[in-house]
Design a protein that fits this description.
With about 350 residues, this protein is of the alpha/beta class. It has 2 domains: about 210 residues, Alpha-Beta Complex (inorganic pyrophosphatase (n-terminal core)); about 140 residues, Diaminopimelate Epimerase, Chain A, domain 1. A 7-stranded mixed beta sheet has the order 13-14-12-11-10-9-15, with helices on both faces. A 6-stranded parallel beta sheet has the order 5-4-3-6-7-8, with helices on one face. It starts with 6 loop residues before the first strand and ends with a helix. About 45% of the residues are buried. The site of manganese (II) ion (MN) has 6 residues, from loops.
Length: about 350
């Protein structure tokens, strides 16, 4: 028996039950299972729901529901849902039933990362985020902060139960892990690698390629152009401002690109969408606790944030849509970012000088 199969039980007693056994045993009394996650579910959230639904349906034959909190805007994520046929019910259309077990994946309660707000009690929280949630009274918890992806943990459950994984499920889980780990920055554990290794022979490579290279809408290029026109460096920090963010998920896509600039270690993209300043942060530093740093910065500004060591996201609610008020919020955010990163107050240097922008216009 592997060391993963032994958990510290109640009162420190050791039990021989594996986590997937305990997860399934606790579901015995329920008739069905509904999965919830964070707003704008990403591939890790989607893959985790798909994988756990497969586990529950295969092992217990219970019906499951997968939910969508808010819109899915990112082109790759939309392609994932469409091409893999993931059936999602908007959270606002769900009717909660007491016989239904509610399982939250890739997120924790009351972190401000979802609109699900304790309408019903949760049976389980399965996650890997650093951001602490309100976990009081949740019977089943599996939160492993060292993991790159929640999908790795779900893959582990499927491996423990030795059930076959159809290509659609495998591809969902694989893409969920890949997007959390691949490229840069990467935070992986050996469990992530084991999961990827197990899933790779099972995935539909053709569909995966279509998802990775999903067609990008015009809005993507508009957001990128705005960011390039309005990016400033302060020592090793780059801040990109987008005054009219076409959709909230574009901040993350833009910052993923900007962090690759060779002269910086930190990148923040802040874009205005629906009376909020949407924030996305990346750093090349290992163990930087970016999620916790951004959470502290924005909590003093009436915002919410969270994330991982090298990636973080959040928002600040804007009190007024006036330019003046927005500029004040931006100035305060900039000041707090510089302070948190121990960078002296200085004038930002444009990434692309104004003169060059104009010169290349046709
Ligand atoms: Mn995740």
């Amino acid at each position: 028996m592997s060391r993963h199969s032994t958990d510290a039980g109640v009162n420190g007693r050791s039990t021989q039950l594996r986590r997937s056994d305990r997860f399934l045993a606790g579901l015995e009394d329920f008739k069905s299972v509904t999965f919830v996650s964070h707003v704008h579910p990403d591939p890790d959230a989607l893959g985790s729901m798909v994988g756990l639904a497969h586990l529950v349906e295969t092992c217990q034959g219970k019906p499951t529901r997968l939910t969508r909190d808010g819109q899915i805007c990112r082109a790759e994520n939309r392609a994932m849902v469409d091409l893999l046929g993931i059936d999602l019910i908007p959270t606002e259309k769900i009717r909660w039933r007491p016989t239904d077990a509610v399982v939250m994946v890739d997120s924790q309660p009351k972190t401000g990362r979802h609109s699900f707000n304790g309408e019903v009690d949760l049976y389980a929280v399965i996650d890997h985020h650093q951001t602490p949630g309100d976990l009081d009274g949740v019977p089943f918890l599996d939160i492993r902060r060292s993991l790159g992806a929640t999908c790795s943990l779900v893959t582990r459950y499927l491996m423990e139960q030795e059930i076959s994984i159809p290509d659609r499920v495998a591809t969902s889980l694989y893409y969920g892990i890949e997007t959390e780990l691949a490229g840069f920055p990467r935070e992986a554990s050996s469990l992530d690698d084991t999961a990827l290794h197990h899933l790779f022979p099972l995935i539909d490579k053709d569909l995966l390629a279509k998802i990775r290279n999903a067609p990008l809408p015009e809005a993507f290029f508009e957001a990128l152009l705005q960011a390039l026109q309005c990016s400033f460096t302060y020592d090793r920090l780059l801040i990109s401002w987008i005054n009219d963010l076409p959709n909230p998920e574009l901040a993350a896509q833009v910052v993923d690109f900007m962090i690759r600039y060779e002269d910086i270690d930190w990148a923040v993209c802040a874009g205005i969408y629906d009376e909020q300043l949407i924030l996305s942060m990346r750093t090349t530093w290992p163990q930087a606790h970016a999620g916790e740093m951004l959470r502290q910065i924005v909590s003093k500004m009436g915002g919410k944030a969270g994330g991982h060591d090298r990636r973080a996201g959040g928002y600040i609610r804007l009190a007024s849509p006036s330019t003046n008020s927005i500029e004040q919020v931006q100035a305060e955010l900039r000041r707090r970012l510089l302070k948190a990163l121990h960078i002296d107050e200085c004038r930002g240097k444009r990434l692309v000088p104004r003169r060059e922008m104009l010169q290349n216009m046709v």
